[in-house]
Amino acid sequence: MPKMPSKTYRVKSYGKQTKHDKPKNWLKDQSHKAIYSTARWIKLRKAYMQRNPVCEMCDKGAYFLDHIIPISQGGDIWNEDNLQGLCPSCNGRKTKKQQS
C-alpha cells in the first residue's frame, strides 16, 4: 500500500506574466493540447491520481499525470499502463531529460 504524500503542491501565481516569462509549452505536437481539457481526460486524471497519490519516482505527493512513453513517440493517450503520477521536481527532471 503506498504511503500518503507528506506534502501537497499548489500552482503559484505572482502577478501578471509578461511575454518574456510565460512558461514554454511542453507539448511537441500542439494538436494534442485539446486532449487535456476534455471531460474524458479530466475524469481519467482524477481517478488515477486518487488511486496513486504518490510520485512514482520518489515518496512525494504526485501532482502531474505523465505519459511514460510520450504521445509524440507513439505512446497511448488513454492507456493507464502508460501513465504515472509525478511530483513537480521529478516531472521537471523527466521533461528536461526527454528534451536533451
Category from helices, strands and their pairing: alpha+beta
How far apart, in Å, are the first and last alpha carbons? Answer: 35 Å
- Strand arrangement within the widest β-sheet reads 1-2
Report the uncertain regions: none
Number of helices: 2
The portion of residues forming beta strands comes to 5-15%
Summed over residues and divided by their number, the pLDDT gives a mean of 82
What portion of residues is helical? 25-40%
In total, the number of strands is: 2
Count of all domains? 1
Query: How is the main sheet built?
Result: 2 strands, antiparallel
**Overall body shape:** globular
Describe the overall structure.
- 25% of the residues lie in helices and 8% in strands.
- The chain is an alpha+beta fold and 100 residues long.
- The protein has one domain.
- The protein has a two-stranded antiparallel sheet.
- The radius of gyration is 14 Å and the shape is globular.
